[in-house]
Amino acid sequence: MKIQRLCTRRQAVMDALISEAKSRIASGQELNCYVDHLLSEVKSLTEQQITMLLWEPIIETSDTTLVTTEWAVYELAKDPMRQDRLFQEIQSVCGSNKFTEENIAQVPYLGGVFHETLRKYSPAPIVPLRFAHEDTEIGGYFIPAGSEIAINIYGCNMDKKQWENPEEWQPERFLDGQNDPADLYKTMAFGAGKRVCAGSLQASLIACTAIGRLVQEFKWNLREGEEESVDTVGLTTHKLNPFHAIIRPRPRN
């Protein structure tokens, strides 16, 4: 019954989204998004197929981005000194103005916070299964044809041979490159090569803007006992227990 209710709610949302797009197309407005393209250009698809093609990027991008943002704020709430450093960098750039995605490149420490959170709390800790069509060798390991392999991203990002004190959350480890675009690949959070996540840039902009605004507007502290609750659950690394924080509005200049 719960699954049926969720499916009904999902279908209602998608019906509204598709209906709005159809009205927009019928009025002659410029086609400027994914749903517009599916409805106007891909005539062979059924409406159900369009629904599922739209739902896939929505659920994949919203869930992982939310998880990353929550873990980043959790770590900042644990660490007042690092939180204050980020706040001071934001203030030096924005002053009394609201932090926006245009300011992200001017706040290097925010990039460090984002990438270090991806490393320690990989949103998708296991790469989905890949099928080897022929014998191959990767990293010295022989993989016979017909094998299915999954890469443990979490394990790679917690490897003490590759990362110093990997169990510690240290945004500073990503500051040497000053928000180097290659940082997106160091943790493999978005994959790489032909199968790299198409939404990696959008995800980083949304998450960094959210983190920046949350720190700019509020001072975060953990509720007593919250620090010990770091277990995760699910296909994405949701906190096992809800994140409880004490937040205080920051004074306006």
UniProtKB/TrEMBL annotation:
Keyword NADP (UniProt): no
Protein family per UniProt: Belongs to the cytochrome P450 family.
GO molecular function, one term: iron ion binding
Keyword Phosphoprotein: no
Positions of heme binding: C197
UniProt source species: Citrus unshiu (Satsuma mandarin)
Compartments, as annotated in UniProt: Membrane
Required co-factors: heme
Membrane topology: Single-pass membrane protein
Domain of life: Eukaryota
Protein name: Ent-kaurene oxidase
Primary location group: membrane
PANTHER family tied to this protein: ENT-KAURENE OXIDASE, CHLOROPLASTIC
